[in-house]
Amino acid sequence: MAFIPTTRRAVLAGLVLSTAVFAAPAFAEKAKIKIGFMGPLSGGNAQQGLGARNGFLLAIEQANADPAGQYEIEPVVLDDASDPQTGVGAAMKLVNDPDVVAATGHWNSPVALATMPVFARFQTPLVIWGAISPAITEQNLPEVTRVTPTLLTENQPLAEWMVKELGAKRIAVIADTSDYGKSNAEAIAEFVPAAGGEVVSTDLLPVGSTDFRTVLTSLKGKQVDAVYFGGVITEAGILARQMKEVGLDKPMLGISGFYDPEFIAVAGDAAANTIVSYPVASQTPKLARMEADYQARGFAEPMSPYTKYAFDAANIIIQAINEAGVEDKAGLAEAIRAIQHDGATGQITFDANGQTQTPIAIELKTVKDGAWTTYAKS
Predict the structure, then answer these.
(1) Could you tell me which residues are beta bridge partners of residue 145?
(2) 8 Å CB contact between 259 and 365
């Protein structure tokens, strides 16, 4: 072994120590945090939740792979089953975990309305990725923001189209008694007359109703041009099927709450008489990249209409965390509310109530050959 003079050894040792000191940050372990996801991962609405969950996971995985990221993020994925009680249980699990700094959820508006007070009480930020009831942001809870448009955004152009373009002047309204259903019924009752049409009748039935025949039979004598349904997937499929059974050969219209393959499975061939509105995000380069990354990731489930919204919700939380840190959750909620985010759905900012201001358009979908397709008036 070669002899190294003492002075030289000291210099070398100093260089090694100096190199180690300067290199330490590059090898420092990132602080670990958790971000929660809630959505329907089981039951009739599971496809919406699974597609959204995958968008959320994609955003988390990409953030963890980014060497510039300040944190190592662990996703906490919980099933809310589109049930308010289950959703509250999931919310309590998240807010009682000290490592969870924020969360995103839900697809179902009654579930979101049930969990929001939990997040507010614990001052934990919640970004809504799917639920579209206006009441969610009308409450203006500082902890709550939403990246999706409200049901008003869909109902107004749908009402104008059905009256002026489809020629359906006399509309029968059927909805469930949830906040979502009642809000849809109220919205269409305002927008149809404003477009020059008439709401002939309004029937609100309990959530989970499976027999609409009495209501539908009564409509046969009222000369309605179309039936508007303000509920969601399973009940919508049953309603469409029973409209055919009683001989009410009129279009069934609604918004994106039942734009789902499961609706077709329930309705069968009666689904072909259905037209729904669907909010369309701008075709941005970020959206194209997300879609390509989703395919490359190889998720078992296809993208759902809400994949991009959950992807954006997760990335908004991550951006705010990198800007504001995680020590002050109230401050993190303020950072989310004040954010400017270049997302898959466009340039995202929030109004004073936490509602996205990203402009959207709608397109119309119908069922042909057993699948949803773009509507074209014949």
Answers:
(1) 127
(2) yes
In contact, 254 and 278? CB cutoff 8 Å: no
Q: Are 325 and 332 in contact (CB under 8 A)?
A: yes
List residues bridging with 74 in a β-sheet: 34
Site of tokens 């941005």: 284
Rounded CA gap, 217 and 220, in Å?
A: 5
**CA end-to-end span of the chain:** 91
C-alpha 31/C-alpha 326 separation (Å) is 10
pLDDT tens-place values along the chain, 378 residues long: 343 444 344 444 443 333 333 333 444 588 999 999 999 999 988 999 999 999 999 999 999 999 999 999 999 999 999 999 999 999 999 999 999 999 999 999 999 999 999 999 999 999 999 999 999 999 999 999 999 999 998 999 999 999 999 999 999 999 999 989 999 999 999 999 999 999 999 999 999 999 999 999 999 989 999 999 999 999 999 999 999 999 999 999 999 999 989 999 999 999 999 999 988 877 889 999 999 999 999 999 999 989 999 999 999 999 999 999 999 999 999 999 999 999 999 999 999 999 999 887 889 999 999 999 999 875
pTM value is 0.83
Element (H, E) at 91: helix 84-95
- Rama region for 25: left / alpha / beta (φ>0; ψ in -120 to 50; rest): alpha
Q: Please, what sign has the CA dihedral across residues 285, 286, 287, 293? A: positive
Buried b (16+ CB within 10 A) or exposed e, 347-358: ebebeebbbbeb
For residues 212 and 246, give the distance between their C-alpha atoms in angstroms, rounded to a whole number.
Answer: 10
